Backbone:
């Protein structure tokens, strides 16, 4: 028997089962109680052989709430608990005679109206809010007030602006990263381009994107005729600089004639970087 007692499923009286004359002389409807004594302790909520499950599910009535399953305790545990309870909640020596309705029935479920256990562990479904009465022993779930339409529009607008601002920041960070990416990352990219070899078609009719740079030393012929030995040394340094730049930016020499070089690149930015270096 529960602390609150039950006359009918929807007519609950307070403390009808307790054995304290000061609390049980005049049972009354629980909705009329507001003093602390109307609240059952955890030990008084359910019969000694029952327990609350950790799982809950929505009730099938119109209460718009979900409550925990009521399960039977394992037989041995039930006998111990029912023997140790005090007052009206104990079975004393009779606890050993608790029947096993189903063999090994540790998961036998019971259907009990939540008013019996004062709605302890019950929650309202989405869209509903709890309203407690009688010193927190009766709960009703009422429809939650609708959100103001202007508030929804304002929140949506703020969220959209914040999202666009965040997107803009991410784009700027991405551009900054691409422009200032570490040297080791660029070198990994260049290694991949070098493994591809020179830009070329794999079969007739294919189109290949290629960037070509042609270099030339201004007045090379005149300077060579006037300063032959110096220009030969200068051309050696010139060629070394171009070879190093070609390797750095994954360029491929297509033609070399005197002071003029023709170099092919996979990407336009590599051709520009090569030109700036030389």
Residues:
């Amino acid at each position: 028997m529960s602390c609150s007692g039950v006359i009918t499923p929807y007519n609950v009286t307070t403390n009808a089962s307790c054995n304290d004359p000061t609390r049980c002389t005049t049972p009354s409807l629980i909705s009329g109680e507001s003093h602390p004594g109307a609240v059952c302790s955890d030990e008084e909520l359910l019969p000694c052989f029952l327990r609350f499950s950790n799982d809950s599910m929505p009730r099938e009535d119109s209460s718009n709430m979900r409550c925990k399953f009521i399960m039977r305790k394992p037989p041995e545990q039930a006998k111990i608990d029912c023997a140790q309870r005090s007052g009206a909640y104990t079975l004393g020596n009779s606890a050993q005679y608790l029947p096993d309705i189903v063999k090994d029935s540790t998961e036998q479920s019971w259907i009990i109206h939540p008013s019996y256990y004062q709605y302890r562990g019950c929650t309202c479904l989405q869209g509903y809010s709890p309203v407690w009465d009688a010193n927190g022993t009766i709960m009703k779930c009422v429809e939650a007030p609708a959100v103001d339409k202007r508030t929804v529009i304002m929140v949506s607008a703020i969220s959209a602006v914040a999202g666009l601002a965040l997107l803009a920041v991410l784009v700027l960070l991405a551009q900054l990263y691409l422009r200032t990416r570490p040297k080791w990352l660029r070198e990994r990219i260049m290694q991949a381009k070098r493994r591809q070899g020179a830009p070329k078609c794999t079969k007739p009719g294919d189109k290949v994107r290629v960037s070509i740079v042609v270099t030339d030393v201004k007045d090379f012929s005149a300077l060579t005729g006037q300063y032959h030995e110096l220009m030969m040394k200068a051309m050696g340094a010139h060629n070394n600089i171009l070879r190093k730049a070609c390797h750095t930016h994954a360029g491929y020499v297509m033609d070399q004639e005197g002071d003029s070089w023709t170099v092919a690149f996979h990407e336009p930015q590599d051709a520009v970087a090569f030109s700036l270096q030389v």
Confidence is low (pLDDT under 50) at residues 6-34.
